[in-house]
Specification:
Blueprint: H1 2-26, E1 32-36, H2 43-59, E2 63-67, H3 74-81, E3 89-94, H4 95-104, E4 116-131, H5 140-149, E5 155-158, H6 164-176, E6 181-184, H7 188-197, E7 202-206, H8 207-215, E8 220-224, E9 250-258, H9 263-278, H10 280-288, E10 292-293, H11 298-319
Length: 324
């Protein structure tokens, strides 16, 4: 009887193991939901929808984008974190979700370190320092000289407190030891409108919503916060070339699922994500918008996120930014 019972247990374990293996190999067997924590039509939504189509073709199942905007990405991030860990609900988590919010909120409905499985990078949007065309400074050195001559008088807009544009300004102020007047808006559009109108004098902007304004001369760029010049703005110097070494700032996005996703599922999703980002047509479309594709392994994206958390938490705490 003991031998018979042992054989039954062994057979059952083998059957369970085979079923689990078949389930992992079969992923996905139904549509995948991609949660975007922002409203339709913005950069985050555009990136997700473009990649979802390509990934869906390779996965053999539709990847359906669902927008869950609100509360500085917290609503969407919480929905991802609380979903079943089966790979059928995944989503976008950006620099705000993973690097800024933990430092700005005393309490969050998700834990950026424990509640997500990191799958891979999506893209990053380089930030550039722009001014109104009539602003007297013609380059970064002249801008800094003017700011230091009139501390607290030169204004700089952002898309809101705690946004990538705001924290980039705070990093700039800390690195240059300058006093610049922060003017927060409710979104990039009204901030850019007032920059074009001369109501504010400067602003760190990301390229997707501002590229056409730069090319048309409605705003003027002093420097790009990237290590190399941008191909779409070849005549604009980097911060380092302009005299501010080591200053880099991006708004970035990554691809995550809830904690404890099965390893085979993560591997498959990362594989198709990287393939989609490296597809020539996808790369071209993103780069034309000013978005740098960010294909990464799971380990690379994890290390990147940890590095960003360390950098920006220090900047946020030094600036005293709190949103609760």
């Amino acid at each position: 009887m003991k031998r018979m019972f042992a054989r039954v247990l062994a057979s059952t374990a083998l059957a369970v193991g085979c079923a689990a293996g078949a389930h992992a190999q079969a992923f996905p067997s139904q549509p995948v939901k991609w949660i975007v924590p922002y409203a339709p039509g913005g950069t985050t939504d555009v990136i997700a929808r473009g990649l979802a189509v390509r990934m869906g073709q390779d996965l053999g199942q539709p990847v359906v984008v669902e927008n869950r905007p609100g509360a500085a990405s917290i609503i969407g991030a919480t929905a991802i974190a609380r979903s079943a860990p089966d790979g059928y609900t995944v989503g976008t988590a950006d620099s705000g979700t993973l690097a800024f919010n933990p430092a700005m909120y005393a309490s969050l409905s998700y834990d950026a370190d424990k509640d997500f499985t990191f799958i891979g990078g999506l893209g990053r949007m380089p930030l550039v320092l722009a001014v109104h065309p009539s602003f007297p400074a013609r380059d970064l050195n002249e801008f800094l000289a003017l700011v230091r001559k009139t501390p607290g008088k030169v204004s700089s807009a952002s898309s809101g407190p705690g946004s990538p544009l705001h924290v980039a300004l705070e990093l700039f102020k800390q690195r240059t030891r300058t006093d610049i007047l922060h003017v927060p808006y409710k979104g990039s559009s009204p901030a850019l409108q007032d920059l074009m109108a001369g109501q504010v004098q400067s602003m760190f902007v990301d390229l997707p919503p501002s590229l056409s304004l730069i090319r048309s001369g409605k705003i003027r760029v002093l420097a790009v916060a990237t290590p190399k010049r941008l191909a779409i703005l070849p005549d604009v110097p980097t911060m380092a070339e302009a005299g501010l070494a080591g200053f880099e700032a991006y708004a970035w996005q990554g691809f995550v699922g809830p904690a404890k996703l099965p390893a085979p599922v993560v591997t498959r999703l990362n594989k198709e994500l990287v393939a989609a980002l490296q597809h020539p047509e996808t790369r071209t479309k993103l780069e034309e918008l000013g978005i740098q594709p960010m294909p990464m392994s799971v380990q690379e994206f994890t290390q990147f996120t940890r590095s960003e958390q360390k950098l920006w938490s220090g900047v946020i705490k030094a600036a005293g930014i709190r949103l609760d």
